[in-house]
Batch of 2 targets.
Target 1
Amino acid sequence: MNKAEILIIDDEPQMRKLLGITLESNDYKVLQAETGKEGVIQAASHPPELILLDIGLPDKSGHEILKELRQWYNKSIIILSVQNNETDIVTALDNGATDYLSKPFRTAELLARIRSAIRRNQTPNDTSIVDAGDLQIDLVARTVKKNNQLLKVTSTEFNLISLFARNEGRVLTHRFILKEIWGVGYQTETQYLRVFVGSLRKKIEENPNNPLHIITESGVGYRFQ
């Protein structure tokens, strides 16, 4: 059994009921809160393994609650929202959300995102080798292997893939990636990033036009899996 506890912060009773049934039938323990204030109190008194956070809350914006939680809560937070605009999504991710799902969503996709987020929680921060199926990324030796064959990557390409690997399953925004790899002055250079991602995909993907590792989140950023 999973046994992991998941806190749902959502003001819609029907949504909480649906999520509760779905999660409990997959062996998760469920905690619920219908306001942001109640959610923060529950998370502080009994920190869960993961939080599902609605953006549209009655007392405070989910964005504000996210900022409050991120002052001390360091595990995964998945945003649930009826808002499917890029600004809302990017704001949430830049404020520390691990992932997001737009309502309505498919149950299978929700469960897959939860598994990925919990797996990320449980991965030691000092792991030096990231095993991603046919890829092995050695963060210390700064090498990348595909099917045990050493790939020739540039320093920037390695910095990029190591950032992705250390954040497996998490959606990274364009601004975040550009800032981490190239610095604050490059945060708007999305075309610059697109070129490097394209170059990296040619080296690590079986089919760069249908990537399995570096997934594009349209208008938002990229996810590594």
Target 2
Amino acid sequence: MIGLYSPGTSFVHRAPTLLKLVLLSLCIVVIGLSPDLRVVGGAAAGVVLLFVVARVPLRAATAQIAPILLILVVALPIQGFLSGWLVAALMAGRLLVAVALAALFTMTTTVTAVLLAFQTLLRPFRRFIDADRVGLLVALTIRCIPLVADIVREVMEARTARGTRGSLMSIAVPVVVRSLYAADALGEALVARGLDD
């Protein structure tokens, strides 16, 4: 399955996964609660700096952030007219920073590190929660998001190559079918590794 990890040796890559998760959560909470556009702008500048320090390829970083820009093209004017442009700018800034931070975390942290971090985090609750299974679930979720995104992209490219302009169903049905095939293959792989109970 296709992951988003971008190998590197920067301090962002080497930082402990739990520390990155905590800082990611804190930053999102702070910018989400702050009514000051300067705080959001400072956070955005900090995220750009972290991307530069981590030496994440520009094309890969842009690919992760571009989808939210498409949403903002529609949402920003509507929010601006309904609630004012300051509120709209805050909303756009918060979304961009949150998505960029999540992308940075994903691109500088291996799935194995995420799995181990969740296992460590949940170990005190092992009497009530199977930490290994929760970690596996999180790792699979992280891995499956880019897989589904690639399936959607391939379906769209195939549709464009055929020169067809069908309904939403003409996109949704192939995406769902291919996603189910991928899930079936993943299930078989897990069963082969003894994770079927």
